[in-house]
Amino acid sequence: xxxxxxxxxxxxxxxxxxxxxxxxxxxxxxxxxxxxxxxxxxxxxxxxxxxxxxxxxxxxxxxxxxxxxxxxxxxxxxxxxxxxxxxxxxxxxxxxxxxxxxxxxxxxxxxxxxxxxxxxxxxxxxxxxxxxxxxxxxxxxxxxxxxxxxxxxxxxxxxxxxxxxxxxxxxxxxxxxxxxxxxxxxxxxxxxxxxxxxxxxxxxxxxxxxxxxxxxxxxxxxxxxxxxxxxxxxxxxxxxxxxxxxxxxxxxxxxxxxxxxxxxxxxxxxxxxxxxxxxxxxxxxxxxxxxxxxxxxxxxxxxxxxxxxxxxxxxxxxxxxxxxx
Length: 325
What we know:
The chain has 325 residues and is an alpha+beta fold. The protein is 26% helix and 29% strand.
């Protein structure tokens, strides 16, 4: 799990993906026929073939915050980058790209946990001291160490560095006749932006998005069938897509045929790169395989190693399948 640890702990909020892109590129390059970056910063690793053109996407950006104001006392006002839960912010540590760490505090009268009444405290004595370290527009990500406990992994940014890990391990192991584009997309957390432009450029025959999904297996949790250690989650739909019926059925067929544990996923809220890809150009037949994850968009996201292996196995057999030209 050393690669996954490096992926989760590398800085890379939406729109600032250069560090994580460089790490992924260094890992992917030995196993790809072609590696390049497009105008929006998406990293594409291609394994050439004469069969169907297939795009597999996993976003490499993570949620974070951005500095919007530094007051006279050296406290940093901020806004969100991606979806964050305001009620969970107080006392959280955040880390800027230059390594400066701050703590999120709040004005006393903030019962509704409004971000406008919160601030980041880096211990600066005044505005001038703070501005020597932080500038307006600087982004920070949440601190969350990587931890393994038997089959369980806990870390920040498993959404979606675990999906990036799946793509990298699949790129390394498969031998396929299809023409496969492994796309590590940018700015998913702020509107599925990288997936939209990269899929337009590639114009694939089929596409899959690999991302995390919520689980319904915690006390008083959301009501859904997906659970930790239940296997790869074959996406039926989310708020951005109704998945292509051929791809959905093919994934279930291949999982059963190859004894790969799987479950079906219906996500009632939130979207994925699959939605943007499916609407690209004249439309793309698109599906998704998800990694069941507890506590999404927190610094302590939780996944199961066996689920991760199941997603890698299912993606591999799908990409190695021979499809009619």
